């Protein structure tokens, strides 16, 4: 099961944080994960098994355009599947938002949460096909636009 998804800049500034469990010390978790990532060499895996504040979990990360997409999962989730999900998240965001720039990501935070909703449901992976994610996102946004109620004051 996926316990959390984070997008963090190289300067340790979180852009998106979503946990599927109750977590008390989010700032400490981000700081610890970024410390482990920065201390790693270039020839090591993208898997962190050290203690970073979430018990019985490990982290899988990948860098995209100066930002780290990090998934926190338990031992029941495959690390390779987590990498696939990370690729799906980043690719979907880049295709929908048309950038992975800090400002664009922050301006489109609701879009990123909708993309995550099409990939994960309560921490369970439901989809990682990028084309399907994009099509479902477009369908969801069209439904939201059609449901808007116009109020007259």
From TrEMBL:
Residues 1-137 form the AP complex mu/sigma subunit domain. It holds the Pfam family Clat_adaptor_s. Keywords: Membrane, Protein transport, Transport. InterPro entries: AP_complex_ssu (IPR016635), AP_mu_sigma_su (IPR022775), Longin-like_dom_sf (IPR011012). It is found in: Endomembrane system. Its main location: membrane. One of its GO terms (cellular component) is endomembrane system. The keyword Disulfide bond does not apply. Belongs to the adaptor complexes small subunit family. This is Sigma adaptin.
């Amino acid at each position: 099961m996926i316990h959390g998804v984070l997008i963090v800049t190289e300067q340790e500034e979180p852009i998106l944080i979503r946990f599927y469990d109750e977590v008390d010390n989010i700032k400490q978790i981000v700081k610890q994960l970024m410390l482990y990532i920065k201390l790693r060499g270039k020839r090591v895996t993208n898997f962190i098994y050290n203690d970073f504040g979430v018990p019985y979990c490990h982290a899988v990360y990948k860098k995209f355009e100066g930002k780290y997409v990090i998934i926190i999962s338990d031992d029941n989730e495959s690390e390779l599947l987590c990498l696939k999900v990370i690729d799906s998240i980043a690719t979907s965001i880049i295709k929908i938002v048309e950038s992975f720039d800090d400002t664009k990501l922050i301006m489109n935070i609701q879009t990123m949460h909708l993309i995550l909703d099409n990939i994960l449901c309560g921490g369970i992976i439901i989809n990682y096909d990028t084309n399907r994610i994009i099509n479902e996102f477009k369908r969801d946004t069209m439904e939201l636009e059609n449901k808007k109620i116009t109020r007259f004051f």
